[in-house]
Amino acid sequence: MNMPVNKRILEERFEFRNIRSDEAEQAVAIEQICFPPNEACSEKHMRDRIAKASELFLVAMDKETGKLAGFLNGLATEESSFRDEFFTNADLHNPNGRHIMLLGLDVLPEYRRQGLGRELVSQYLKREWERGRKRVFLTCLESKVEMYEKFGFFDQGIADSAWGGEEWHEMSCGAV
Q: Are strands 135-140 and 99-107 parallel, antiparallel or unpaired?
C-alpha cells in the first residue's frame, strides 16, 4: 500500500511517540507560544499532565534538531461532556476511561501549514481507537471548527466552557 507523499515526508522528518518526562520544559514553552496567556496551560498543570498521563501525549520530534515541533495531549475519562476542570486537574485522568478529552494541539509556527497538525490528530485517533476508546472530545474557537471538521470531528454547538473567557465549540469524534 502506497503512503501519500506528504505523510511519508512527515514520517521521514518526525518521530511520533509519547512524551518523555525530560521534555516537559519544551512542552511548557511550546504551549506558551501556541496559545494566548488566557488560554495556555500553566507550567504546573502541564507538568502534572505529563506526570499523570504521558501516554496520552503524542509528540512530533524533529529528527534533525532533536526538539519537539508539536504535540497533542489529553486525558482519559468515563465522562462524555467537556468541562474546564480537565484543563487544570490531571487527577481527573482515568487510564481506563473510554473517552478522551483533548486539551491541546500545539504546533510551533515554523512547522505549521505542512500537515503536521493533521498528522498528529490522525495518529492520535488511530492509536486511541486501537486502545478501545469510544469517543474523543475537544473544545475550539469558532475559527477552528472547520479545521477540526476536516479531521473528522463533528460540531456539537457551543460548549459549556468559559475557559480563558472565550466562547468555545464542543466537538467530538467516535471510533470507526
A: parallel
3-state SS assignment for residue 96 = coil
Please identify which residue in the block is written with the cell numbers 482519559: 76
Tell me the C-alpha distance between 171 and 123, whole Å.
18
CB 93 within 8 A of CB 53: yes
What is the value of pTM for the model shown? 0.92
| Chain mean position to CA 45 | 15
Give per-residue pLDDT as tens, 140-161.
999 999 999 999 999 999 988 8
In angstroms, what CA-CA distances link 121 with 37, 38, 44, 64, 107? 24, 24, 25, 22, 11
Residue range 80-122, pLDDT digits in tens: 988 999 999 999 999 999 999 999 999 999 999 999 999 999 9
- Work out the burial of residue 135: count CB atoms within 10 Å of its CB; fewer than 13 is exposed, 13-18 middle, 19 or more buried: middle
Residue 13 Cα to chain centre, angstroms: 20
- CB atoms under 10 Å from CB of 136, counted, come to 22
pLDDT of residue 1: 47
Residues sharing a CB contact under 8 Å with residue 68, sequence separation 6 or more, in sequence order: 23, 26, 27, 30, 59, 60, 61, 62, 108
Amino acid 79: pLDDT: 94
